[in-house]
Write a structure and sequence with these properties.
GO terms for molecular function: inositol 2-dehydrogenase (NAD+) activity; nucleotide binding. The protein is an alpha/beta fold. The protein has 2 domains: about 5-165, NAD(P)-binding Rossmann-like Domain (Rossmann fold), CATH 3.40.50; about 170-375 and about 405-455, 2-Layer Sandwich (Dihydrodipicolinate Reductase, domain 2). The protein has helices at about 5-20, 20-25, 30-35, 50-60, 75-90, 100, 115-130, 145-155, 170-180, 215-220, 260-265, 265-280, 355-360, 370-375, 385-395, 400-420, 440; strands at about 45, 65-70, 95, 110, 130-135, 160, 190-195, 235, 240-245, 285-295, 300, 305, 315-320, 325-330, 335-340, 345-350, 355, 425-430, 435. A 9-stranded mixed sheet has the order 17-16-15-7-14-13-10-18-19. Strand 1 (about 45), helix 4 and strand 2 form a beta-alpha-beta unit. Helix 1 (about 5-20) packs across helix 15 (about 385-395), helix 7 (about 115-130) packs parallel to helix 8 (about 145-155) and helix 8 (about 145-155) runs antiparallel to helix 16 (about 400-420). The protein is globular, with a radius of gyration of 22 Å. The chain starts with a helix and ends in a 15-residue tail after the last helix.
Length: about 450
């Protein structure tokens, strides 16, 4: 990459930061900034393109040019290369192996939207390759992976945005909720309930032939080697149709081998906002208790005894002892969203509404004009990528940094461990380990399959 290209990309990033996100979103944004040439904009690549991978890519064309895309499914890769070419007028290079993306010196940042079990390996290797990183939530498969990512971010100085968009582009109501709490509108917070919905179990899923377009061995990657399983019924509308039940596309979140069920899916959104509101983004709980829960298969010593059905919890009620005697409940029951209860009131917030007496009272007693900006730490970016690029310019971490994300995700991971083992877990938030429980602590990490170790 020439020195002139480096300068023009830097100027683009500064344009976003200094002009403000609002200007970037207008239809004439590129003309206003004078960035008609691809050389004037930062160069991105996306690794993992199904569903959310395309979603974050398509939202980023305003701010960056995509030089490369990578996916282990040839059909998904080809379709997204075609869509990207139509969007930006230039065809990106296509790779099955993400390492070829990391070898490219012209790529400034990567966006990672693979299944969760791949996140840490790709993210760490990307940072060591000199790339800034945007990675989808949940960031990690285990708690120790989070510690490793923090170490590498600090060591390399790379900018790292986690894709928890409730902190910005889908988060205006959530920012208002935090502002209400910080302004004392419900007094002292005593309880917060995160409704994240449950999930259905699956029938027995038979071994099936691997689709011709899919490199299933590479899809498994760091995870244990197992047969591909799928039922013939198709789920349309998800990247062109995938099996209704499988241990791969779409359904990977329902298997502990690749993800953490609803606890790390929706939990990564609502528990994050709850911790942010409580001022607990740099600490953790003291105890996690599985009050009620249902696992879809039998477990022994924390591991499922069968491998032909979904194994993540389908129903649950988890009690979490948070700092300052706050009780957090994570439940599959009720409305999806967050209920805050304090000594002087309560209110409920989700992506569609914010309701309750403290909200109604804003008509006569509005929040201070700068309340939302104080929560966000400055002018609110209506696009998560814009915030990422602002951070790339300042070399400061963005609104969804790895440290706050990992602290809240520890609660979700511990909740899953507590259900798998069927007991309460006492947590040391300073040492970041489970107290007096060697077996439970063994679940804080997971060894990558041979040949898929993290290259450091």
């Amino acid at each position: 990459m020439s020195a002139s290209k480096k300068i023009t990309r830097r100027n683009f990033i500064q344009g976003v930061a200094f002009t403000g996100a609002a200007a970037v979103f207008s239809p004439s944004a590129h003309r206003a900034f004078g960035y008609e040439s691809p050389n004037d904009r930062p160069v991105f690549a996306t690794i993992g393109l199904r569903n959310q991978g395309w979603a974050i890519t398509s939202k980023s064309f305003k701010f960056a040019d995509f030089a490369a895309l990578a996916d282990v499914d040839a059909n998904v890769l080809g379709a997204n290369v075609e869509k990207t070419e139509k969007k930006q007028g230039k065809k990106p290079d296509a790779y099955k192996d993400y390492r070829k993306v990391l070898d490219r010196k012209d790529i400034d940042a990567v966006m990672i939207a693979t299944p969760d079990h791949w996140h840490t390996k790709i993210a760490v290797e990307a940072m060591y390759a000199g790339k800034d990183v945007y990675c989808e939530k949940p960031l990690t498969l285990t708690i120790d992976e989070g510690k490793l990512i923090e170490k590498v971010v600090k060591e390399t100085g790379r900018v790292f945005q986690v894709g928890t968009m409730q902190r910005s582009e889908s988060g205006q109501r959530f920012l208002q909720a935090i502002a209400l709490i910080r302004d004392g509108r419900i007094g002292t917070v005593k309880k917060v309930t995160c409704g994240i919905n449950g999930m259905e179990g699956s029938p027995v899923i038979p071994v099936a032939s691997v689709p011709e377009e899919l490199d299933y061995e590479f899809w498994l990657g760091p995870a244990p080697k197992v047969d591909y399983r799928a039922l013939p019924e198709m789920r349309e509308g998800y990247g062109g149709g995938v099996p209704l039940y499988s241990n791969c596309h779409y359904s990977f979140r329902n298997w502990h081998e690749y993800s953490g069920g609803k606890l790390t899916d929706w939990g990564a959104h609502h528990v994050d906002i709850a911790c942010w509101a409580l001022g607990a983004s740099d600490t953790g709980p003291s105890k996690v208790s599985p009050v009620e829960y249902k696992l879809p298969v039998e477990y022994k010593d924390g591991f499922p005894t069968v491998n032909d059905q979904y194994n993540a919890a389908t129903e649950f009620k988890i009690k979490v002892d948070m700092p300052n005697d706050v009780e957090m409940i994570i439940t599959s029951e009720g409305d999806n969203g967050i209920l805050f209860e304090g000594t002087e009131g309560r209110f409920f917030v989700n992506r569609g509404k914010i309701v309750g007496a403290p909200v109604e009272a804003l008509k006569d007693n509005p929040l201070p004009e700068d309340a939302i900006e104080k929560v966000y730490g400055g002018k609110v970016s209506a696009n998560h990528t814009a915030n990422f690029i602002e951070a790339m310019n300042s070399r400061k971490q963005p609104i969804s940094d790895v440290w706050s994300h990992n602290r809240m995700l520890e609660i979700c991971h511990l909740s899953n461990i507590s259900m798998r083992l069927g007991r309460d877990l006492k947590w040391d938030p300073k040492k970041r380990e489970i107290i007096d429980d060697a077996q439970a602590n063994s679940f804080l990490s997971r060894e990558n399959r041979k040949g898929y170790e993290i290259n450091m």
